[in-house]
Structures are given as structure tokens and as C-alpha cells.
Amino acid sequence: MTISEQSRHAMFVRLESALGEEAALILMEHLPPVGWADVATKRDLDQLHTLTQRDVALLGADLRGEIGQLGADLRGEMGQLGADLRGEMRELRGEMFDRLTSQTRTLVFTVLSSLATMGAVTLAAARIG
């Protein structure tokens, strides 16, 4: 049965004639504004509470799993970056060693050539003089 405003008003008029206006108003204020089927019970609220707790627990578990996966991914990527960096540093160290060796050889060759030239000039000067 659906309660309409018209049927509520009709009930108020009958209550007013039987009980008086003040008592009729008090009684009408205690009635729900809609049908009783639409009023939530304590059991409905308990059931909603249980379902909400379950949903929150599931979301928490999902979130913890995703955060754990992100952490694992991040650790893996950082490990790979560290390995890449160490490899690049080894390559740079090798290049620096090669360049230093080449510069040292060039310097030694230049010094020896200069010494040989100075020796030849000194020997030539000694023969002339």
C-alpha cells in the first residue's frame, strides 16, 4: 500500500477530530514521511556496515599488493640502473687508461726524440769545434 499526501491528510483530519489538533500533530510527526518498507532497520545498517568493512579490507589488500609490486619493480629498475652505471664507469676507466697510456707514450717519444736531437747536435758541434 502506497501512502500519498492525500491519504496522510485524511488521516490527520480524522485524528484531529478524535484527539484534537495538538495530539494529531504530535502523532503525525512520529510517522515516517514515506512507507515503512523504505525505512532502514538496524539490521539493514548492520548488514551495510559488514559489507562496507569487507569492501574496505579488499581494497586495502589490493592496495598493499600493488604497492608491493611497485616496490619490487622499483628495486629491479634501480638494480639495473646500478649495473648499467657500473658498466659505463668500467668503459670510461678503460678509455681513460688508454688515453693516458697514449699520452704517456707520446710524451716519452717526444722527450727521447728531443734528447736524441740534442745529442746529435752536441756530437756535431763537438766534431766541428
- Which series of helices and strands comes N to C? HHH
Low-confidence stretches: none
Distance between the termini: 141 Å
Largest sheet: none
Strand content: under 5%
Structural class: mainly alpha
Number of strands: 0
Element layout with pairings:
Blueprint: H1 5-19, H2 21-29, H3 42-128
Describe the structure.
The protein is mainly α. The protein has 2 domains: 1-37, no CATH class; 40-99. It is built from 3 helices and no strands. It has helices at residues 5-19, 21-29, 42-128. Helix 1 crosses helix 2 (21-29).
List its traits.
129 residues, 3 helices, mainly alpha, 2 domains, single chain
Summarize the structure.
The protein has 129 residues and is mainly α.
